[in-house]
Design goal:
Structural class: alpha/beta
Order of helices and strands: HEEEEHEHEHEEHEHH
Largest sheet: 9 strands, mixed
Shape: globular
Helix content: 25-40%
Strand content: 25-35%
Radius of gyration: 17 Å
Number of helices: 7
CATH topology: Rossmann fold
Strand order of the largest sheet: 1-2-3-5-4-6-7-8-9
CATH architecture: 3-Layer(aba) Sandwich
Length: 259
């Protein structure tokens, strides 16, 4: 795919995402299986938007050593366009959703939603999902993180810009964002990854975001470019323990509730 085509696709992505964010959110009902530590289960969240309903399907993982006697970090993982649909097994193909099947005591509670076919990530729905998990599980609200690949990389940039006070840090991979939102990202630790030979999403999409943040005085955004790597820059990123250590090193300064 050549860059000109991708530029048009990028604009379509952001138009769809911004339109989705304008919806009014009503009440939420839940249907779920109680997860057991060391396992990943399929769950569903029903969201009412005006007169319509939307179902958010997702995988939820609790570490093997999970106990409600302490608060745990939460990781939101957003998959790419190829894993959209209504089969949650697809979500486990890459990234943290795959890794937790191999590492039972992965040190995060991991929520991995699935985006339906034909649409893009809805930031408002994702926010509702994160809040739901934070309320129903023992979550440390100062350590909520977001990461995603390709379409999920776009989703990560968009979601963190819309809710900058929710996330302690973010890792967008081979995605892109809207540089106009950079002013909302200057205080958030962000580590972006991209392959310099990416023929699907040019590395310039990530570079533009990091440079826009730095231009506004942001000092917490950085980028790793893999030489000679095409679109799959996520496999080596999610296999790198340093990435998870970096995430865990960041805490959000929570405002104290008013008395």
């Amino acid at each position: 795919m050549i860059m000109k085509k991708h530029d048009r696709i990028s604009k379509t992505v952001f138009t769809a995402v911004l339109a989705a964010q304008l919806c009014w959110l009503g009440s939420v009902t839940v249907a779920q299986e109680e997860p057991k530590p060391g396992t990943q289960v399929f769950q569903q969240l029903e969201v009412k938007e005006g007169d319509t309903k939307a179902n958010i399907q997702y995988c939820l993982f609790l570490p093997e050593s999970y106990k409600k006697t302490k608060a745990w970090p939460l990781m939101l993982f957003l998959h790419g366009a190829g894993e959209r649909g209504d089969n949650l097994e697809l979500v486990k193909k890459w990234g943290p959703a795959k890794r937790v099947g191999q590492e039972k005591d992965f040190p995060f509670v991991v929520v991995s939603p699935q985006c339906p076919k034909g649409i893009f990530w809805n930031a408002t729905h994702l926010h509702v999902l994160v809040e739901h998990i934070a309320k129903t599980q023992k979550i440390d609200r100062s350590r909520i993180y977001c990461t995603g690949l390709s379409m999920g990389g776009y989703g990560t940039w968009t979601l963190v810009a819309k809710y900058p006070k929710l996330f302690a840090a973010a890792v967008p991979i081979c995605g892109g964002g809207n540089p106009a939102t950079a002013e909302r990202l200057t205080d958030i630790p962000i580590w972006a990854f991209h392959g310099d030979k990416d023929s699907v999403v040019p590395a310039s999409q990530s570079t533009a975001m990091v440079e826009a943040i730095k231009k506004l005085g942001g000092e917490k955004a950085k980028m790793t470019i893999y030489p000679g790597v095409n679109h799959n820059s996520w496999s080596q990123t999610y296999a790198n323990k340093e990435v998870y250590d970096w995430l865990l090193s960041h805490h959000l300064k929570l405002s104290k509730p008013k008395k």
